[in-house]
Task: inverse folding
């Protein structure tokens, strides 16, 4: 055994649910982390220092997780924290870790649609677990799917991905249902399963709800050979709490099973049982909780320091021979790993039926950052519920405020009736009931706000990702292109895009009425619809705009919105521009700074107001000579106010463009942005800003 330095041990936090509904799943993860720490200490520690683990109980509540994380970071000064299971709890921690610039190592599979420089995600993304699992089911003739999950972020998001994949694979979603975490009553749901007769039930329940569900499923007479349950949340550990006959024959998908026959896994299982008892089992989350401590150790030693920024940088690219096989940390802070599918045996272990022949690249954003991204239907489905979430959150807050007012009145009544014991008792009972309602509604409000916060982050991130990159803009033949976008809120309703297809370029710039989350959602719908139409080889400007309007109109009706979109579409080919659609004026600057203003009022109507706008669609042609430029913008520029309430205005915009006509597109953009900021000064920005500068390249 190596000698440890006498220096002060380095502290790390272990933050898991040791009580509450998630304790059944999370307690073994704490054990796995402690085992890794013990092994590392016996081998000499980290940079010659022993590790002092400080264990805290998140109690299955996001607010408790947040409070304990602050305590570990602020008071205990831990170097890193290993922990969490549910997405709700993880999301409560992300802003805390970003505020403290510390690192969270998260060991559980999750829905994706998140990234943080302060989190390493060592569980599987949906594309590494869920998508291969559904592909396997479809290939094995499971066509009718029943989706059942706990009512929080992970199951709801994952089930949207499953729904889209099932539809693309010619399967059918017969029903989807959600129950609160900790729910133990499944009779109604099981009756629905019997009535709909699916081929398979895909289970994303979490925690001890699974014990009740599998038992009640078996007691209802449903057997695995008739309607199997396929889980992506129940591992070997949870199976130990369920009667054997209730689980045999059902399926699961994980990157790791205890039954993997490799030397590394046999050693891992043997050590775990030796430390915690022969009856204990290992699982995918247990293995991840174990190996992520070793990943942290490797990163620290590679960095030669416990300093957070150095460790974060050193972790990228690290490989580790884990019990499941070779894993690697990718630049997006997720882990490249494989997937296995197994059937549950009477031993409560999984017989491995399928192992992917390669490690799978993690795509937490569903591949939206990839040039061949095709899952636009998933994105639109994910985003379509955001406005309803906003409404629901507002309704809950309103109800909570109403009950708070009632609570105050009851307290006043109680004070006035203190002399009369019987009335006092009645008032106390009413007060208690009101308090219970307030507690329940506040819990709902916190959960919904957490979900809404996640949706805001998803929308903001997707907006950034879907903007054309500098590399894409440089690849456009014939044009120099420079773009700029800045939302007034976290999420904006402005957008622009530049797409090449079959030698032609399609340029779009749009502005959804208002700004904020709902406007941002609609702008994303436009982007995905435009890209989809272009891939379908629809090139005629009038037909393109007509189909786009009908698509957006249908989506706006679906989400019961009153918003509309002004949108200009420019088709470019060989110095010729065709402008269609109603938006702000297009400003053309020619040699010597001569300005031409193109009014788009007669080129279309705002999208989403009417189902048919074909009679209003027109095109305006522009020929660009070498050195000519065209500037497209949203009204956030011309209507930008200073502290005196004065607008920036189109005249000043034209002057700025004219005086920089002979500059490259990027410098024209910078000149406009700089002048706008100079005009605004310290005044609050009230509207989103988008700007696109196109400059015809010289033919030489």
Result:
């Amino acid at each position: 055994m190596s000698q440890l330095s006498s220096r002060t041990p380095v502290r790390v936090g272990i933050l898991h649910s040791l009580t509450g509904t998630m304790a059944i799943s999370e307690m073994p993860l704490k054990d796995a982390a402690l085992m890794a720490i013990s092994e590392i200490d016996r081998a000499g520690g980290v940079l010659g220092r022993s590790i002092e683990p400080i264990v805290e109980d998140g109690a299955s509540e996001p607010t408790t997780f947040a409070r304990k994380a602050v305590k570990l970071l602020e008071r205990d000064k831990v170097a890193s924290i290993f922990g969490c299971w549910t997405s709700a709890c993880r999301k409560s921690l992300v802003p805390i870790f970003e505020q403290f610039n510390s690192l969270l190592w998260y060991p559980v599979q999750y829905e994706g649609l998140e990234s943080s420089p302060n989190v390493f995600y060592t569980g599987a993304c949906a594309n590494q677990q869920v998508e291969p699992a559904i592909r396997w089911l479809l290939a094995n003739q499971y066509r009718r799917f029943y989706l059942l999950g706990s009512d929080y972020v992970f199951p709801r998001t994952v089930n949207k991905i499953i729904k889209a994949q099932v539809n693309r694979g010619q399967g059918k979603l017969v029903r989807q249902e959600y129950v609160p975490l900790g729910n133990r009553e499944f009779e109604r749901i099981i009756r629905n399963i019997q009535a709909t007769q699916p081929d398979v039930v895909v289970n994303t329940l979490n925690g001890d709800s699974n014990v009740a569900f599998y038992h009640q499923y078996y007691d209802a007479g449903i057997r695995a050979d008739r309607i199997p349950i396929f889980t992506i949340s129940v591992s070997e550990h949870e199976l130990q709490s369920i009667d054997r006959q209730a689980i045999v024959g059902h399926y699961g998908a994980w990157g790791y099973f205890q039954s993997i026959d490799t030397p590394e896994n046999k050693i891992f299982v043997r050590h775990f049982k030796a430390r915690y008892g022969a009856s204990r089992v290992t699982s995918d989350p247990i293995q991840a909780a174990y190996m992520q401590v070793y990943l942290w150790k490797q990163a620290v030693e590679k960095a030669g320091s416990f300093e957070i920024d150095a460790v974060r940088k050193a972790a990228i690219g690290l490989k580790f021979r884990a019990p499941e096989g070779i894993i690697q940390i990718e630049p997006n802070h997720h882990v490249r790993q494989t997937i296995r599918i197994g059937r549950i045996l009477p031993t409560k272990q999984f017989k491995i039926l399928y192992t992917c022949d390669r490690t799978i690249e993690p795509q937490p954003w569903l591949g939206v950052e990839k040039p061949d991204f095709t899952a636009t239907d998933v994105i639109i489905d994910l985003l379509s519920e955001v406005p309803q979430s906003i409404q629901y959150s507002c309704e809950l807050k309103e109800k909570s405020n109403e009950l708070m007012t009632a609570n105050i009145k009851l307290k006043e009544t109680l004070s006035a009736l203190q002399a009369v014991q019987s009335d006092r008792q009645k008032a106390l009972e009413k007060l208690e009931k009101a308090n219970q309602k307030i507690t329940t509604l506040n819990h709902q409000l916190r959960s919904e706000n957490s979900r809404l916060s996640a949706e805001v982050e998803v929308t903001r991130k997707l907006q950034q990702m879907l903007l054309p990159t500098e590399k894409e803009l440089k690849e456009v033949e014939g044009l120099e292109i420079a773009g700029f976008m800045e939302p007034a809120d976290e999420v904006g309703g402005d957008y622009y895009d530049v797409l090449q297809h079959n030698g032609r370029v399609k340029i779009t710039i749009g502005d959804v009425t208002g700004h904020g989350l709902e406007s941002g959602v609609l702008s994303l719908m436009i982007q995905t619809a435009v890209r989809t139409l272009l891939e379908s080889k629809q090139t005629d400007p009038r037909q393109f705009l007509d189909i786009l309007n009908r698509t957006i109109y249908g989506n706006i009706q679906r989400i019961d919105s009153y918003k509309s979109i002004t949108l200009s579409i420019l088709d470019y080919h060989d110095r010729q521009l065709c402008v269609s659609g109603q938006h702000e004026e297009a400003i053309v600057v020619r040699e010597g700074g001569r300005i031409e203003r193109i009014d788009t009022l007669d080129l279309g109507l705002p999208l989403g107001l009417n189902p048919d706008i074909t009679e209003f669609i027109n095109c305006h042609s522009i020929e660009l000579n070498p050195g000519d430029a065209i500037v497209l913008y949203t009204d956030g520029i011309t209507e930008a106010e200073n502290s005196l309430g004065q607008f920036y205005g189109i005249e000043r915009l034209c002057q700025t463009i004219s005086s920089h006509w002979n500059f490259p597109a990027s410098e024209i953009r910078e000149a406009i942005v700089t002048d706008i900021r100079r005009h605004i000064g310290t005044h609050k920005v009230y509207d989103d800003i988008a700007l696109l500068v196109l400059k015809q390249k010289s033919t030489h």
About this structure: The chain has three domains: 10-125+264-337, 386-461, 467-696. The longest helix spans residues 421-466. The CA atoms of residues 62 and 89 lie 4 Å apart. Residues 386-397 have pLDDT under 50 and may be disordered.
